[in-house]
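[INFO] parsing input record for Metallothionein
[DEBUG] input buffer:
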Amino acid sequence: MTVIDHREAEKHDHTHGPGCGHDAVVHEDHVDYLHDGHVHREHDGHYDECATCSCAHCSDSCATCTCTDCTCATCNHNVCSCAHCSDSCANCVCSDCTCSTCKHAA
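[DEBUG] output buffer:
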């Protein structure tokens, strides 16, 4: 599960979902909805702002971060650095994973 700081988003006049008019991005175990500079995810009947990249030089959402040297464990675009894997870190299931940004690595 993505660690969030539980910042509740502004109230909405609609429910995010297919056809709501906002771009949707799968981010780890949830779907983020992008609009007006915000990245919202449903949480316990309301919407929260999703996680922000923890890299020192980035302030983008983890769902949309494009840092080329990203080390943030919750960013969507990180790719496993194991020699035998090409999955994103969010989806990697290598049993012997050594990648520092994969969620399941020991």
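[INFO] Residues 1-65 form one domain.
[INFO] shutting down worker
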